[in-house]
């Protein structure tokens, strides 16, 4: 039997990033998590003494919750470090909601930190490899996403120009975000003529490599109304897993986001037409396209045409990855938590030049592995309850 959180039963009340981009020498992932947690608690007017639920995932720590709690000097009543790559944080938010509703904790923090950029050459995340795939020496994850992109082009006529529209939209949003790592001008020729990484994906089709961390604070809905910021309520959640190795993916152009999204919409009582702001995991341009299709914003195979002519850029028909996403804002190894931070800020109306007018609902979608684990959250302002 599937167990889901109660619609609107819990809320995100604090969000923050740590230092982003390239952090100071000697900074650790725990430093970044701790920094983000303190900022997120200050955001909602709580303190470490209030925290009794800790949820985190990390690629540079073997036992992240134990290490983080020791670092913070706290002994929570409940903790969880379930790991499904970049989708971990949407999944952990659903787990946190269930723990809050069950009374297992009262104030939950979800955190992530990585020094991926600073540690290049000194740290390599362990990659599980299908023994049969390993014979071909794939350059993962790029090779896997390139397979999906090539298949989509073959089946549906998608072009590199279509993928370039996604990169250009992300950069246009990033230019409105003072915390974005890459705000430099970007042209279509820059995208199309960038060095090829794994055909058909060039360097500008690939996410940034940065340091950084983030954290959110969750409480039950009855407490959320009394804290410093406008609450952002968890309306829907869903998870799905179709494969692990890309060669075992049933269909390279159809991800588990179709199932996780359906679960989240059903719980929220909403449809794609009801969503004002979309934040999806964009490790590569092709992921944005696939998730827009699988989350129901356009039919399967129409993603390339859907994103043309600035449709997902500022001023377009659908605001997508308004922070600049993993392509231009930041990507410290795993990006899932950052989609949630941006979604909350949009629903609070705190995004200044990139603010989406009258935003009341948002999707924050996480992707883990090579299009493997998928997790979807639908968040809403108080008007949606």
TrEMBL record:
Pfam families named among the record's database cross-references: Thiolase_C_1
Limits of the Thiolase C-terminal domain: 238-380
InterPro entries: Thiolase, Thiolase-like, Thiolase_C_2
Coiled coil: none
Name of this protein: Acetyl-CoA acetyltransferase
Lineage, opening ranks: Bacteria, Pseudomonadati, Pseudomonadota, Alphaproteobacteria, Hyphomicrobiales
């Amino acid at each position: 039997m599937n167990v889901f959180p109660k619609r609107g039963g819990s809320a995100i009340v604090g969000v923050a990033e740590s230092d982003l981009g390239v952090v100071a020498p000697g900074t650790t992932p725990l430093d970044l998590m701790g920094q983000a947690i303190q900022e997120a608690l200050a955001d909602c007017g709580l303190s470490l003494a209030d925290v009794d639920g800790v949820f985190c995932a990390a690629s540079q720590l073997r036992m992240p919750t134990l290490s983080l709690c020791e670092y913070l000097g706290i002994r929570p009543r409940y903790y969880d470090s379930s790991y499904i790559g970049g989708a971990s944080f949407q999944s952990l938010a659903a787990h946190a909601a269930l723990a809050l509703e069950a009374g297992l904790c009262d104030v939950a923090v979800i955190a992530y930190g990585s020094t991926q950029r600073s540690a290049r050459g000194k740290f390599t995340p362990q990659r599980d490899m299908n023994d049969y795939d390993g014979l071909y020496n794939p350059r993962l994850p790029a090779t896997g996403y390139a397979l999906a992109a090539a298949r989509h082009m073959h089946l549906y006529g998608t072009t590199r120009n279509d993928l370039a529209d996604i990169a250009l939209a992300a950069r246009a949003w990033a230019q409105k975000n003072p915390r974005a790592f890459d705000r430099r001008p970007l042209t279509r020729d820059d995208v199309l003529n960038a060095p090829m990484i794994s055909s058909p994906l060039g360097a500008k089709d690939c996410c940034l490599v940065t340091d950084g961390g983030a954290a959110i604070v969750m409480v039950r809905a009855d407490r959320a109304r009394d804290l410093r910021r406008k609450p952002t309520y968890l309306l829907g959640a869903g998870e799905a897993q179709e494969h692990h190795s890309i060669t075992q993916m049933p269909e390279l152009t159809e991800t588990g986001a179709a199932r996780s999204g359906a679960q989240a919409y059903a719980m929220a009582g909403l449809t794609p037409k009801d969503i004002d702001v979309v934040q999806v995991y964009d490790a590569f341009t092709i992921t944005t396209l696939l998730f827009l299709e699988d989350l129901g914003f356009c039919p399967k195979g129409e993603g390339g045409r859907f994103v043309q002519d600035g449709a997902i850029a500022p001023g377009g028909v659908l605001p997508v990855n308004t922070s600049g996403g993993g392509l231009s804002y930041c990507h410290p190894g795993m990006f899932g938590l950052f989609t949630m931070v941006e979604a909350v800020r949009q629903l609070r109306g705190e995004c200044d030049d990139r603010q989406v007018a009258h935003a009341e609902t948002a999707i924050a979608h996480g992707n883990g592995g090579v299009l493997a684990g998928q997790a979807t959250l639908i968040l809403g302002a108080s008007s949606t309850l």
